[in-house]
Amino acid sequence: MSKLYLDPKQVSRARRAASGIADSLQSFILERTTVAVERTVLRLYGLDGVDADFVPLPNVVVDQIKEGGQLARGAARYVINAAIQRGLTVQEIGEQVADGTLDLLEIPMADEATIREKGTELANASLERIRANRRKREEYLQTLGEGPQPYLYVIVATGNIYEDVVQAKAAARQGADIIAVIRSTGQSLIDYVPYGATTEGFGGTYATQENFRIMREALDEVGEEIGRYIRLCNYCSGLCMPEIAAMGALERLDVMLNDALYGILFRDINMQRTLVDQNFSRMINSFAGVIINTGEDNYLTTADAVEQAPAVLASQFINESLALRSGLPEEQMGLGHAFEMSPDLEDGFLLELAQAQMARELFPKAPLKYMPPTKHMTGNIFKGHVQDTLFNVVGAMTHQGIQLLGMMTEAIHTPLIHDRQIAIEGAKYVFHNMRRLGDEIEYKRDGRIVKRAHQVLGEATAILEEVEGIGMLEAISRGMFADVLRTMTGGKGLHGVVKRADDYFNPFETLLRVELGLEAITR
């Protein structure tokens, strides 16, 4: 029974509208592919490395096919054909394309059935590595266990992967459950994935497959030392969303930030490009057992948190519907929201509590990702620590799934190791002492908290029904989310979107549809 007395009929209206929005978008998505999707196919086949100019081999191969006007048929077709006709591995094909000795479009085509059979065979073998990673995670969880929810989520962001390892291990020993490695500033806007271990990121550390491997190995080591599995998080939003999702699956990441709307609104990535990329990336995340984090919390950094609350909820409903169409179960949907109302607002705590409790009731299986105050942090570390504590109290009372810990030095500098320790100690104190507080509380039917929840749900439902009527892409163009306007043809990456041909071939997508029970969702 809802503690907020939410009307089930209105909740059904909201979900019905979100489902209509998602259906319309899915039809649009499944008619298209992108350069990032095709590079992901090659990475899943095992293609890695860079050419003499440090251009990643997946980019080199996909660019050759695209420049030849054949990407609409799928990169897999031409790479698998070369493997059949020339007896080469996928890695050898990439290296020969890079050194100029192989043109994939000049090789005579094998018959369609042979290409599809070989492509599917190799794809199945590649997916087994991801299956093995999922089994390894489950084995660790059974033998080591993990901390209770809400998971304590902290960030490391030195720019140097080896220094990140030092800080991540310290945070794990201090009590963190999830370590998030922030990406270097601007990486989401580059249309390739950097290669190898990196030590010179700015504002974060580059997301590379080698960096993922290094950090995964370090967290397994410290997890075995302390007797608790430590989850690893990174970002797969941006122009390389599905590629980084694949890298995360191959290196056993556990949590990935994955939200097209975040990229559209806050990184000005073209909406067509990132919606297509998001669909395939979420299929990979689902198969790999990765929890996604969505970016609704970011709306509140550009717009008023009280006014934008209905848009945040509407976006959560849309993200849920889109995630289901990518095969992602509710248990892997870390839908985002944030404690971002002004501390000067009278009874702001009550409004925050209403929003968090409502999210918990509406998405009961989701490991909700709850973000700390950042917008209204001033550099006053004492007041900041109080703000973070109130945030933790709401998290405890409403049983959030993932608590991204605030730092008292927010707005001053990147947190130092002792800043993080203080944040973890404060959160553990609140969660331990208030573990079952939420179970003991009932809300007044005519009180401020209940009225606020009803207001936000009602306005969110109205937004969803309006968006269903005009279409999601048009709604974004009108600035209905976060007060940010984007257009269908604006932003970065549109050049990388291609309409699929009738004989388009992506064996990984086909296999994942079967694995995830999505066979009924077609173009």
Layout: helices, strands, pairs:
Elements: H1 8-29, E1 32-34, H2 35-44, H3 57-67, H4 75-86, H5 90-98, H6 112-143, E2 151-156, H7 161-174, E3 178-181, H8 209-226, E4 231-235, H9 241-250, E5 255-257, H10 260-267, H11 271-288, E6 291-293, H12 299-302, H13 309-325, E7 333-334, E8 336-338, H14 348-362, E9 369-371, H15 381-397, E10 402-404, H16 417-433, H17 448-470, H18 472-477, E11 497-499, H19 507-515
Parallel strand pairs: 2-3, 2-10, 3-4, 4-5, 5-6, 6-7, 8-9, 9-10
Antiparallel strand pairs: 1-11
Helix pairs in contact: 1-11, 1-13, 1-17, 2-3, 2-9, 3-5, 4-6, 7-8, 7-16, 9-11, 10-11, 11-19, 13-17, 14-15, 14-17, 15-16
**Quaternary state of the chains:** single chain
Return the CATH topology of the domain at 145-451.
Answer: TIM Barrel
- What is the 3D shape? globular
Architecture of the domain at 145-451, according to CATH?
Alpha-Beta Barrel
CATH C-level label of the domain at 145-451: Alpha Beta
Point out poorly predicted stretches: none
Per DSSP, what share of the residues sits in E-state strands of 2 or more residues?
5-15%
Structural class call reads: alpha/beta
Q: Major β-sheet, in short? A: 9 strands, parallel
Give the spatial strand order of the biggest sheet. 7-6-5-4-3-2-10-9-8
**Alpha plus pi helix count:** 19
Give the total of beta strands: 11
Query: What Rg, in angstroms, do the CA atoms define?
Result: 23 Å
Query: CATH homologous superfamily of the domain at 145-451, by name?
Result: D-Lysine 5,6-aminomutase alpha subunit
How helix-rich are the residues, as a percent range? 40-55%
InterPro entries: Cbl-dep_enz_cat, Lys-AminoMut_A, Lys-AminoMut_asu_sf
Organism: Tumebacillus lacus
Protein name: Lysine 5,6-aminomutase subunit alpha
Domain D-Lysine 5,6-aminomutase alpha subunit: 4-510
